[in-house]
């Protein structure tokens, strides 16, 4: 008999009248808000303007959700388009099923659009948001707990996850891989924050560190899972994806450090209010018309003063010449 285990929720949804509140969606929403909040603090610390991170997230988050769902549906197409399946279920995102690989890939496209509109470099924005993304993933994994999904092999450890009977699952106690990944993501966030402060990472290297660190943990966590998945050469598809993405992240980190060492000095050009010429132009427009007339009159008065000074200087010279002529005579 199991004396200790982590219980699973009896249901993943609570109805508030006619409105369903789903644990999976709730965890995703909390993660997004925390990521934006943390990213905003880091962006301001690097010299950016408050609110910029949220403005770009308006583009990145919807793209990321679509990308995450597309990756899941494409790589697990048999769940939606196989015999006896209903393809409409592919749109039921609240039932779970978001692939982080697709979310990051398509989310980056949305972020690129937002950055282009604001005139800021995407790598700098990604560096600021990197730890927040890891924290968002930590929250998001608890959505899998609500849905009783993505658990590991059977175990009788004290922290085993108890799963009840249901579609595509057998009652028992299993490794809580959702918890392992949640804790790993929090560790990744702490690593990126520390490394960024210690080594002043820039030009996308903080984001690359996040990607590499997450992938290294995803490999062993994915290896423990027992849910249905496609295999290539004996390894789950997501294991291969993690390996490839890890290599790409490390290559980018190394090349970026050689080609663009240091950190960006300016992440948002207009964050300090613009250049001195722009400020002068604005000040000039703000000067009242009467004041402008007075300002224009100053040079004219100066010219008159110069003329008077010239005349005054000429009189002594004339007197001296007359005195000289008198001595000669």
TrEMBL record:
<protein>
    <recommendedName>
        <fullName>Phosphatidylglycerol--prolipoprotein diacylglyceryl transferase</fullName>
        <ecNumber>2.5.1.145</ecNumber>
    </recommendedName>
</protein>
<keyword id="KW-0812">Transmembrane</keyword>
<comment type="function">
    <text>Catalyzes the transfer of the diacylglyceryl group from phosphatidylglycerol to the sulfhydryl group of the N-terminal cysteine of a prolipoprotein, the first step in the formation of mature lipoproteins.</text>
</comment>
<keyword id="KW-1133">Transmembrane helix</keyword>
<comment type="similarity">
    <text>Belongs to the Lgt family.</text>
</comment>
<feature type="region of interest" description="Disordered">
    <location>
        <begin position="296"/>
        <end position="329"/>
    </location>
</feature>
<dbReference type="Pfam" id="PF01790">
    <property type="entry name" value="LGT"/>
</dbReference>
<feature type="binding site">
    <location>
        <position position="141"/>
    </location>
    <ligand>
        <name>a 1,2-diacyl-sn-glycero-3-phospho-(1'-sn-glycerol)</name>
    </ligand>
</feature>
<comment type="pathway">
    <text>Protein modification; lipoprotein biosynthesis (diacylglyceryl transfer).</text>
</comment>
<keyword id="KW-0808">Transferase</keyword>
<dbReference type="GO" id="GO:0008961">
    <property type="term" value="F:phosphatidylglycerol-prolipoprotein diacylglyceryl transferase activity"/>
</dbReference>
<keyword id="KW-1003">Cell membrane</keyword>
<feature type="transmembrane region" description="Helical">
    <location>
        <begin position="237"/>
        <end position="255"/>
    </location>
</feature>
<feature type="transmembrane region" description="Helical">
    <location>
        <begin position="94"/>
        <end position="115"/>
    </location>
</feature>
<feature type="transmembrane region" description="Helical">
    <location>
        <begin position="23"/>
        <end position="40"/>
    </location>
</feature>
<feature type="transmembrane region" description="Helical">
    <location>
        <begin position="177"/>
        <end position="195"/>
    </location>
</feature>
<dbReference type="InterPro" id="IPR001640">
    <property type="entry name" value="Lgt"/>
</dbReference>
<keyword id="KW-0472">Membrane</keyword>
<feature type="transmembrane region" description="Helical">
    <location>
        <begin position="52"/>
        <end position="74"/>
    </location>
</feature>
